[in-house]
């Protein structure tokens, strides 16, 4: 519950501080004597004007180009966790939001095996992770999927059930699984 209050407080602070900011694209208005540097008179990009409804090229938050995952890395959003050895997840695709790119599951869920030796890491903050066992990962998944934050103990929290994974050659067994931190 404490982490929820912290997240709400952080969002309120960001909203209060960012209220006067506008999203600007990479173009600059140098025709009117601009210095070529960043300025408050920067012209909004075409994507910010609504020419990109799906957010794939900037869209709503003018995020720019969507992120590319390194070869061999797959992004998923876990939707179901039946037991310690199996998860069901959808492919997670980046969506532009006012805060930045956020991954969200799309399409039909697929089953993946979680072997006892899976190399799992849970997020402890921005860019920080802690290695956990499959059993610890399983308990974390269970609690986050049902939004039971009282079962999620510090330093962990729930971040939308989005994970970076690598798979075996058959594509059915998770080799590594790292929780994706987001605000």
Order of helices and strands: HEEEEEHEE
Please tell me what the overall shape is.
globular
Mean pLDDT: 77
The share of residues in helices is 10-25%
Radius of gyration: 19 Å
- Count every helix, treating DSSP H or I runs of 4 or more residues as helices: 2
Distance between the termini: 16 Å
Q: Main sheet, how many strands, which sense, barrel?
A: 7 strands, mixed
Overall number of strands: 7
Give me the side-by-side strand order of the main sheet: 3-2-1-6-7-4-5
Query: How large is the share of residues in beta strands?
Result: 25-35%
Topology:
Elements: H1 2-18, E1 74-83, E2 86-96, E3 101-113, E4 119-125, E5 128-132, H2 134-145, E6 162-167, E7 174-179
Parallel strand pairs: 4-7
Antiparallel strand pairs: 1-2, 1-6, 2-3, 4-5, 6-7
Structure at a glance:
The chain is of the alpha+beta class.
Textual characterization of the structure:
Strand 1 and strand 2 (86-96) form a beta hairpin. It is built from 2 helices and 7 strands, in the order αβββββαββ. With 183 residues, it is α+β, with helices and mostly antiparallel strands. The two termini are 16 Å apart. The protein has a 7-stranded mixed sheet with strand order 3-2-1-6-7-4-5, with helices on one face. The chain has helices at 2-18, 134-145; strands at 74-83, 86-96, 101-113, 119-125, 128-132, 162-167, 174-179.
């Amino acid at each position: 519950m404490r982490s929820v209050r912290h997240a709400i407080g952080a969002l309120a602070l960001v909203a209060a501080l960012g209220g006067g900011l506008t999203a600007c694209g990479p173009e600059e208005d140098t025709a009117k004597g601009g210095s070529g540097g960043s300025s408050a008179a920067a012209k909004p990009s075409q994507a910010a004007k609504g020419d990109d409804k799906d957010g794939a090229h900037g869209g709503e938050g003018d995020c720019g180009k969507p992120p590319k995952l390194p070869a061999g890395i797959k992004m998923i959003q876990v939707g179901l966790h039946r037991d310690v050895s199996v998860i069901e997840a959808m492919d997670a695709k980046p969506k532009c939001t006012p805060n930045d790119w956020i991954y969200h599951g799309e399409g039909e869920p697929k089953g993946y095996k979680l072997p006892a030796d899976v190399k799992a890491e849970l997020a402890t903050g921005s860019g920080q992770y802690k290695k956990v066992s499959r059993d610890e990962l399983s308990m974390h998944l269970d609690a986050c999927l049902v939004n039971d934050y009282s079962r999620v103990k510090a330093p962990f929290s729930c971040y939308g059930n989005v994970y970076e994974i690598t798979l075996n050659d058959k594509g059915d067994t998770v080799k590594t699984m790292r929780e994706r931190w987001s605000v």
